[in-house]
Amino acid sequence: MRLGAIVLVGALLSAGMGVWGQSGLPDLMVKSVRVSPGDLEEGQPALIRAVIINRGQGDAVGTFDVIVELDGSELARRTIFELKKDKTSEVPVPWQALVGTHTLTVSVDVPFNAIRESNESNNRFSLQFTVSPVAGVRSFSVDFVKLFGRTLSEAGAALHFQLTDNLFTSLDNAVRAINDAATILRDASLELSLVRRILPTAFAHDGLYKDAEALGALFESIAESFEHIGVMLSIGNFDGVLENAFVLRHKLVALAQKELGGASFAPMHSAVTQFDRVIALAKELRDLLKGAQGRSQYQVAIELFNAFTAFGDEVGRCARAIVRLAESRAARFYNGDEPINSAYLTKRPLLITWAGVLLMRLELYELTTGTLVFISEEIGPVLELTSDGSLVTGTYGYKLVGITKQGASRVEIGRLQIKQANATPPLRKHDVPMGMSGH
Predict the structure, then answer these.
(1) Residue 1: CB partners within 8 Å, gap ≥ 6?
(2) At what angle do helices 207-234 and 238-256 cross, to 10 degrees?
(3) For labelling alongside 189, which of 293, 345, 351, 370 has CA 20 to 30 A away?
(4) Residue of 98 and 407 predicted with greater confidence
(5) Are 344 and 332 in contact (CB under 8 A)?
(6) Strand order in the sheet with 28-36
(7) How confident is the model at residue 389 (pLDDT cuts 50, 70, 90)?
(8) Contact indicator for 366, 380 with CB cutoff of 8 Å
């Protein structure tokens, strides 16, 4: 059979027939469960989202319940009134994070099995996640990069779809994977809004957050391109696939040129290179379908699918490299010679090291008012505050501004806890700025 016919049949499958199963019956499943944002701390506002999907051959007509349990206790119950085949429904549950390791279980169509399904054994999904105690130092700059890195990594994993001996099913899986990746990329904006809730007032409109918003918009745009490719692939329109693939490539190049909080997204260039392989194979297959002479259509199709999953793997690898870069370039805070864990205790010097900077300034802000309450500068990659026990107990927003060896400016924002019974004003190591402008 010519691949053109295979694509056409595959399009019919993805448009409504789906994978082979018991005809006419729905199959309700928990497609995914997410706890957002990642790296939760005790007391932080969070959102649990369960996505329910009907993978069956018929519509789920009538009401059924979705139950969300945390550590064996019911956290929420939602009723869904109908779910058509191949459609999804999201169940959002707000939650205030509690410290510890938790088991989250989502069950669909329980306890009464109101919907007759082709498979009644796949209606439950569980995952474990951990909420950390409140950290003494937290870098929001690194948090932002980790948020986007995690999103990229999950999108890349979604693109690694299952190949089978049946091209119909492989095509169906490819379209689903592309749409799943797009959904994950769109989640970046929601996660960003959740992280913003814990930003100190002083940083709510900081340039770093504006850069993160712009990056979130780019992720939305990349998701849109993925969706367009999925549509074109599902109807066998390889001219449309290629047209949108070139648009996607342009956006991936733009992503590779981005920088956030001093962390470059340049590792994404290798994902662009892998995507070029996808484009080349898609073009070859398009030409073969139009009657050009060359290799077997089947062989090129298999290579195309393999190249696309390899692209997903490379996206994940690049995402992890970006996060590692951000973590390696972050400032380090020490209580004397020990890393700060629960809080900075002022009986010992506060030591901040920031690799790659020649001049560093520390600013501390009140969390609620955004008032600048302390400033200190020092030449070199190390800033030391000998407080003699005089720094005021409290939790502050910190802003580090540094000048690198190349003359570039770097900024890191975060939160710092200080513990000391004495309530006198902070001791300033340097009251007068030493040549760095702005606060």
Answers:
(1) none
(2) 160
(3) 370
(4) 98
(5) no
(6) 28-36, 45-54, 88-96
(7) low
(8) no
**Helix (H), strand (E) at residue 233:** helix 207-234
Peptide bond into 37 cis (omega under 30): yes
The closest of 10, 113, 92 to 49, measured between CA atoms, is 92
- Cα separation values, 315 from 125, 146, 165, 279, 320, Å: 27, 14, 26, 16, 9
- The 3-state DSSP class for residue 147 equals helix
The tokens for 166 are: 């049946």
Cα-Cα-Cα-Cα dihedral sign, residues 293, 296, 299, 304: positive
Residue 427: pLDDT over 80: no
Question: CA-CA distance, 241 to 10, in Å (whole number)?
Answer: 15
pLDDT digits (tens, 9 = 90+) for 204-218: 788 888 899 999 999
Measured N-to-C along each axis, helices 3-12 and 297-329 cross at an angle, to the nearest 10 degrees, of 60
Instruction: Please compute the mean of the pLDDT values over residues 29-37 and round it to a whole number.
Output: 93
Asked if 390 contacts 422 with a C-beta cutoff of 8 angstroms, the reply is yes
User: Which residues face 70 on adjacent strands?
Assistant: 73, 104
Distances (CA, A) of 158 to 185, 201, 226: 11, 36, 12
Looking at the predicted structure, is the pLDDT value of residue 10 above 80?
no
CB-based contacts of 425, cutoff 8 Å, min separation 6: 390, 392
- For residue range 284-293, what is the model confidence (pLDDT) as tens digits? 999 998 999 9
